[in-house]
Here is the input.
Amino acid sequence: MPWFVKIERGIVDKATFDQYVPAHRAYVRSLIEAGHQARTGYWAERGGGMLLFHADSRKAAEEIVARDPLIQHGCVDYELHEWCIVEAPD
Here is the structure.
């Protein structure tokens, strides 16, 4: 099931945040290589972004999120959500 993380930059300064972005990008590449079909995107004007990936359960999703360098170093606040597809009524 797809899961996504809504990321909002935390209280760290921009230099600290920027320090961990390369490690975050490398981590996303490792998710893709592991078959999680990860995608990420940012909106710089608000200091936020999203990481979308596949996980089999909430626990697996939490483990993926916990290894993200931006989260490990307190650079971002985040919310974890399951991607739900809602079909419109006929």
The mean pLDDT is 81.
